[in-house]
Design brief:
Elements (H helix, E strand, L loop, with lengths): L3 E13 L4 E6 L5 E6 L4 E5 L2 H12 L5 E9 L6 E9 L2 H13 L6 E3 L5 H9 L6 E7 L4 E7 L15 E6 L14 E5 L2 E5 L3 H12 L3 E4 L2 H15 L16 E2 L2 E5 L2 E5 L2 E2 L5 E4 L4 H18 L3 H6 L2 H15 L17 H7 L11 E11 L2 H8 L32 H22 L3 H25 L9 H24 L3 E6 L2 E5 L5 H15 L3 E14 L7 E10 L4 E4 L10 H14 L5 H24 L5 H4 L1 E4 L12 H11 L9 E6 L11 E3 L11 H14 L5 H6 L31
Parallel strand pairs: 10-13, 13-18
Antiparallel strand pairs: 1-2, 1-8, 2-3, 4-6, 4-7, 5-6, 8-9, 10-11, 11-12, 14-17, 15-16, 19-21, 19-22, 20-21, 22-23, 23-24, 25-26, 26-27
Helix pairs in contact: 6-8, 6-12, 8-11, 8-12, 10-11, 10-13, 11-12, 12-13, 13-14, 15-16, 15-19, 16-19
The protein binds a DNA duplex through strand 15, helix 8, helix 12, strand 23 and helix 18.
Length: 765
DNA sequence: AAAGTACGGGG
DNA sequence: GTGTACGTACTTT
């Protein structure tokens, strides 16, 4: 006879077992234990009777027990009921194999649905559990088998309690860049408010620390790509164990690193090293943790029901996609598998009208005072929710006379609410609640937590839109994407018209923001305008702020025209807003960033044009001189000089001998493996050298006798200065210096060999 | 001059 | 486990 017992705590992690799902629970005291749940993953088969019969014959070849059940579900796009067969098994490994076998068979007469959802996620959807859910679990105490679960928590809760987590941090000394790109340094471990630098054997020390503190979370920098595999290799060489996880079997499951294209550029995701019963989070391999912290990560995992360690390594797009799957399953739909859907036919002229994206205007470059900026809050998600924009609602079969999208005339279903609007509506609402809590919370720590959570939501909503346009997305359709941008253009146009009718001058517009001014207008006038714009568009628009001054930068190719999204300005609150300046770029040397930021900080004291110029003439000039002295004296440290570049190619795949190619090849020769999308850091040694290998060196291997290219760095520095210039004040101060061409019509760029030796102008003494 | 290479945005 | 924009700017050939 078995006795039962209740375990109370939080769901910490889940994992696939040979049979069932392992559920890690943390109790109030912080103790971690694993329980077993008998969940049976399932998928659906559709087809005629003969097809199903053949499929069943295939299934009978498997030795794992298989359960069959008749069911009726709805087809997603048509919304029609479909009779189908639910196939389930109690073994997750067998489940994957069966699906692979049934989907790879050529000319199969059956179709599979709901068959490519990760098993752990299917488990969460089916049981209503989610990562960090507060639960009471009834188990048979003899074998830890779960007999029932009560959930006292909800993903929609804004004030939830979390388990007490002991967090350990590991890093390697020697700077912020990738430690694989420099000689090996010592380990740094932080835990329990203590910092330890490991001088002794790293394996022995780590084992001691882990067994003493038993952390729930290991937060690393470069853990996935370097630290963890390096330590494991070391352990393997010595035939020792290294218990990162709480289970010896299947220690550190691993997925290969990969490079992939997204938003027009290649990015690299390092191979993941996750632990069983303990979270490993790599700050350098997790957008969500870096941008929104552990709080944001937990928030997204709770909503998407993606286990924490996977959520950390995946995109916010996957998060929203997962929520859509959850919604669709709950609504009784068959989940389409690996969608391959062609765009509806369009003529060439139609394409021209449709594929326009967001509206961008060209600002007239220059320095303006008393300018207001208005922003539509989460414009695209709001439009998707308001106008029911979703793959299955655009040009649906059921509503031939439905209302249409402006410009492009697509029809939108009036019969059913789309999956996308249904999914994001509560998200928009929850984000709003968090934003209100940020404002009202008295405790600064709580404020910060709410802010990180709302920021995580924001990223989800942003990617949700991008995802709509991806033709192979599970729930995406290009026409839905185009309808969203068409409505967006319409809304920006309406707002612009309202402003102009009110006598405001329209200075600049960018997708969901607009900049306007009217001489003598007060804050109340702008607020009034905002209200009018809201009335005219029907969607929320906020006064982002009133700038004391704002500078729209000119194009470098044609100084008469401005460029969208390169500007900086000072709000009347004293806050700066900076877009597209060199300080915002990853490939700007650190000292240039720092100098530009310092100058901007000085300029926050300027209330108008006159004071701006005065600050340039006085404080900025002396800052430039100091910085130039350090640079030209050859004393600048390599970290400050380093430039970061992301590889777009395999190191040997470059056609041109650029600095990036040369340094990637240098690292390769030193045994560093590099993938497209990975970042490297370099110091420019001689930008004009004929031999590419002399142009620059990898930061990690830059030391004596190398010297940096003072002339080149000077040019870069002066470019950054020029961005902040007004009425040629700084240019005038710097005139007469050789090499430097501030006006764009001065001396030629290349002054022959040895830039370092070139005589420098008055500023450099 | 043309082609190759890389960046930001969003907050 | 997804996402191949778009405009600008610089370098190399």
């Amino acid at each position: 006879m078995t006795t039962s017992k209740i375990v109370e705590g939080w769901v910490f992690d889940v994992q696939e077992e040979p049979v069932g799902i392992g559920v890690w629970i943390i109790d109030r005291e912080g103790r971690t234990r694993k329980l077993l749940h008998g969940f049976k993953p399932y998928f659906f088969l559709t087809g005629n009777w003969a097809a199903i019969k053949t499929a069943i014959q295939r299934l009978e070849r498997w030795h794992a027990p298989i359960y069959l059940e008749q069911a009726e579900k709805k087809e997603f796009y048509s919304d029609r009921p479909v009779p189908c067969l639910k196939v389930s098994t109690d073994s997750p490994p067998a489940y994957s194999k069966i699906i692979r076998a049934l989907t790879t068979e050529k000319e199969r007469p059956w179709d599979l649905y709901t068959c490519d959802i990760p098993v752990t996620q299917l488990f969460f959807i089916e049981t209503g559990l989610f990562p960090t859910a507060k639960v009471g679990v009834e188990i048979e105490s003899r074998n830890s088998l779960i007999s029932s679960i009560s959930i006292t928590d909800s993903p929609w809760e804004t004030d939830y309690s979390l388990p007490p987590l002991q967090i350990m941090e590991i890093d390697m000394e020697g700077g912020s860049g990738n430690p694989a790109h420099r000689p090996m340094g010592r380990l740094i471990v932080k835990i329990d408010q203590r910092e330890m630098i490991i001088d002794e054997d790293p394996l022995i020390s780590l084992k001691q620390i882990i067994s003493r503190y038993d952390p729930h979370v290991i937060v690393s920098r470069w853990g996935d790509s370097y630290l963890i595999p390096k330590l494991q290799k070391l352990a393997a060489q010595r035939n020792e164990s290294l218990p990162f996880g709480r289970e010896s079997s299947g220690e550190v499951p691993k997925k290969r690193g990969r490079s992939y294209f997204t938003y027009g550029k290649i990015v690299f995701t390092a191979s993941s090293h996750t632990f069983k019963g303990r979270w490993h989070l790599d700050l350098e391999n997790s957008f969500t943790v870096r941008e929104c912290g552990l709080e944001g990560l937990i928030e997204l995992a709770r909503l998407s029901k993606i286990p924490i360690q996977r959520m950390a390594r995946t995109s916010t797009g996957t998060c929203i996609s997962s929520m859509q799957v959850d919604r669709a399953i709950k609504d009784g739909y068959l989940i389409p598998w690996r969608k391959s859907q062609v765009e509806d036919f369009k003529t060439a002229e139609e394409l021209l009208v449709i594929d326009k994206g967001g509206l961008t205007y060209r600002p007239v470059p220059g320095f303006y005072e008393q300018v207001a900026e208005f922003d539509f809050a989460s414009m695209y998600p709001t439009l998707m929710a308001k106008f029911n924009l979703s793959p299955e609602t655009v040009n649906c079969r059921c509503c031939p006379d439905a209302s249409t999208v402006p410009e492009i005339g697509f029809r939108i279903c009036s019969r059913r609410e789309g999956l996308i609007p249904k999914t994001i509506r509560p998200l928009i609402e929850k984000r709003k609640q968090y934003k209100e809590k940020v404002k009202s919370a008295a405790d600064p720590i709580l404020k910060e937590i709410y802010d990180r959570r709302q920021s995580a939501h924001k990223w989800c909503l942003v990617t949700c839109f991008g995802y709509l346009g991806y033709k192979n997305a599970r729930f995406g359709k290009i026409e839905a994407h185009e309808s969203t941008t068409a409505w967006g253009r319409e809304m920006l146009l309406r707002a612009k018209e309202v402003a102009e009718q009110g006598g405001f001058r329209f200075l600049h517009g960018l997708t969901d923001s607009l900049w306007v001014k009217k001489t003598g207008a007060k804050k109340e006038d702008y607020l009034e305008l905002g209200k009018l714009m809201e009335e005219k568009t029907g969607i929320p628009i906020a006064l982002e702020g009133i700038y004391r001054w704002i500078s729209f930068l000119p194009s470098k190719q044609d100084p008469r025209i401005g460029v969208p999204s390169r500007f900086f300005g000072l709000f009347d609150t004293g806050k700066l807003k900076v877009r597209g300046l060199m300080a915002r770029r990853h490939d700007t040397p650190g000292f240039v960033k720092k100098a530009q930021e310092e100058i901007l900080a000085m300029l926050t004291q300027a209330r108008d044009r006159k004071e701006y110029k005065e600050i340039l003439r006085t404080r900025v000039q002396s800052l430039i001189e100091t910085c130039m002295d350090g640079l030209m004296g050859g004393k600048m440290n390599p970290e400050e000089l380093s430039i970061l570049k992301r590889l777009s190619q395999d190191p040997m795949g470059y056609e041109h001998g650029t600095m990036t190619a040369a340094v990637a090849q240098e690292l390769l020769a030193r045994g560093v493996k590099l993938m497209p999308g990975e970042a490297i850091q370099m110091v420019i040694t001689d930008a004009s050298a004929k031999d590419p290998s002399l142009k620059a060196r990898a930061l990690g291997f830059f030391d004596l006798p190398h010297t940096y290219d003072q002339g080149k760095y000077r040019e870069i520095f002066l470019e950054a200065i020029k961005e902040l210039d007004l009425d040629g004040i700084l240019e005038g101060m710097l005139r007469g210096t050789p090499i430097v061409d501030l006006s764009g019509i001065g001396l030629p760029q290349d002054q022959g060999p040895g830039r370092q030796k070139i005589r420098v102008g008055p500023l450099d003494r």
